[in-house]
Amino acid sequence: MIDFKKEITQKISRIVNIEVDKLIQFLEVPPDSEKMGEYAFPCFKLAKELKKAPQIIANEIKEKMILPDEALERVEVIGGYLNFYINRETLIKEVLNEFELKKEMFGSSKDGAGKNIVIDYSSPNIAKPFHIGHLRSTVIGGALYNIYQFLGYKSVGINHLGDYGTQFGKLIEGYKRWGSEYKLEEGPIDVLTQIYVRINNLCNQDENVLNLCRDNFKKLEDGDPYCIELWEKFKGLSLKEFQKVYDLFNCKFDSWKGESFYINKMPEIIEMLEKTGKLVESQGARVIELEEESMVPCIIEKTNGSSTYATRDLAAILYRARNYNYEKAIYVTSYEQILHFKQVFEVAKLLEMDDSYKENLIHVPFGMVLLKEGKMSTREGNIIKLEDLLEEAICRATKVIEEKNPNLKNKEEVARKVGVGAVIFNDLSNSRIKDEIFDWDTMLSFTGETGPYVQYIYVRTKSILDKAGYIPGFSEIDFSKLQDKFSIEVIKVLYSFGDIVKIAAEKNEPSVISRFVINLAQSFSSFYTENRIIGEEKKVKDARLYLTNQVGVVLKKGLELLGIEVPSEM
Ligand code: ARG
């Protein structure tokens, strides 16, 4: 598809003799294209280099440009700016033609062909609830997975289960003491959480119990059959419960290798670190000092010889470098783990592997989910479970549908898509690092900037096409019928899709796509309130129907990248 930014900067480049790559980053998109064109170039950026006043530079460039041509209609000078008006007929032709060629793949690219992106996300902890904090990791990671895939990369989704660590020592101790008092099968995670809270309280009061727990964990690491049996039991029951949530989300992983997978890979890590001479004793533990990086030491081996969360992450890095030859390794967790990943990535520089693997470790942190009651924590046990939350979303969506469209077919299916979609969209609609506040009413509204709103507009495109009874063929489209302001606006948004997906990947920021689908839905909404479609003369009707279909396909794709399904009616 034509790249207007390149076209413009190539022209300027030829006149002023400065490379396109440098010029292109100065190009701006003015707020009002009617008055200021689609793109503006600020000539004051060149004033120093060309030793001339911006206004003079602008006029000289304008003089030397031969317009109109295929790409540009005209250029105007306003102040020190060059304002470019693109050739709209070319824009329309290009956008529709590209769609005709690529259909659902409109906006995709092959940039990532042959390259792997490893995404470590969701990663809940065994025997602990899958809580609302894991929602963000699951949703953001899942969206990144789709976005990279759409750019031609091979995404590898890893659920780095928290299936190891000292908490299992505690759980085993608690279960040994009180297991027979509980019915584990009825609600395994609830029961295990209760046991965990109980033993944790006891540990706080009695140092001896804490030591027993630590011994249990050591025994588990050393392969004690009883400890392993219990651990496997906890793990199996937990996974079964997690799966219910993944099913609601339609979420799949390529690998379920959790922390425990790396236990036997620990010695190699220790050996590599020993060789560097930087692994030192500190109060009985072995650590890597990170003073020069202004961080606390990274504990590699505890006093009793146990591994740590960090060591297991180091082993995972080495494993992923070797097995996935990754272009990037991405970790999606809350910002509470920023320090952890900084430490781990720093220590990873000491591992024996190519530098490219060390340089492309990326932590993608996100803000907390805030409920009115404030933050949630496992230790006190006052947590909202994700499963309950999704059930509630679906229940609320059912009520809305019941009010608006009581005769709808497949109500249950639609309610699931709308309810879960609302939760996902809410999560992805603001920049990820911001804290997210949970508010049912705004998130389920059909009119605000919400998931249900975008789904609703998608359904509108479907019903318009259904009413018409056909989708016109590309060869029948008269591009001149899409020159009105509202059609052009829709086409411009569509034109940006490919760039938007790339930006979302560059920044690891799915909200860029959420913004895009809102813009597309809103511009389409103005388009069809202002423009009649059915009932217009054939040429106009066909052109508008073709565009309507394209909007529907792209809205669906945009939502799909975010992990949101669309209903066919609602
Ligand atoms: N299980 C951890 C938690 O719930 C997240 C794991 C993130 N991934 C990693 N490789 N450390 O906090």
Short description:
With 570 residues, this protein is an alpha/beta fold. 55% of the residues lie in helices and 10% in strands.
3D structure, described in words:
- The strands form four sheets. The protein has a four-stranded parallel beta sheet, sandwiched between helices. It has a three-stranded antiparallel beta sheet with strand order 1-3-2. Strands 6-7-8 form a three-stranded antiparallel beta sheet.
- The longest helix has 25 residues, at 225-249.
- It is globular.
- It is built from 22 helices and twelve strands.
- Helices cover 55% and strands 10% of the residues.
- Strand 2 and strand 3 form a beta hairpin.
- The model is unreliable at 376-381 (pLDDT under 50).
- Helix 8 packs across helix 10 and helix 20 (485-506) packs antiparallel against helix 21 (511-530).
- It has helices spanning 4-16, 20-24, 33-36, 44-50, 54-64, 88-102, 132-150, 166-178, 188-205, 207-221, 225-249, 266-275, 309-324, 338-348, 355-359, 386-404, 411-428, 440-444, 451-468, 485-506, 511-530, 538-562, and strands spanning 39-42, 72-78, 81-86, 116-120, 154-158, 279-282, 285-288, 298-301, 326-334, 361-366, 369-370, 436-437.
- With 570 residues, the protein is of the alpha/beta class.
- Residues 120, 123-125, 160, 162, 313, 316, 331, 333 line the site of arginine.
- Arginine is lined by residues 120, 123-125, 160, 162, 313, 316, 331, 333.
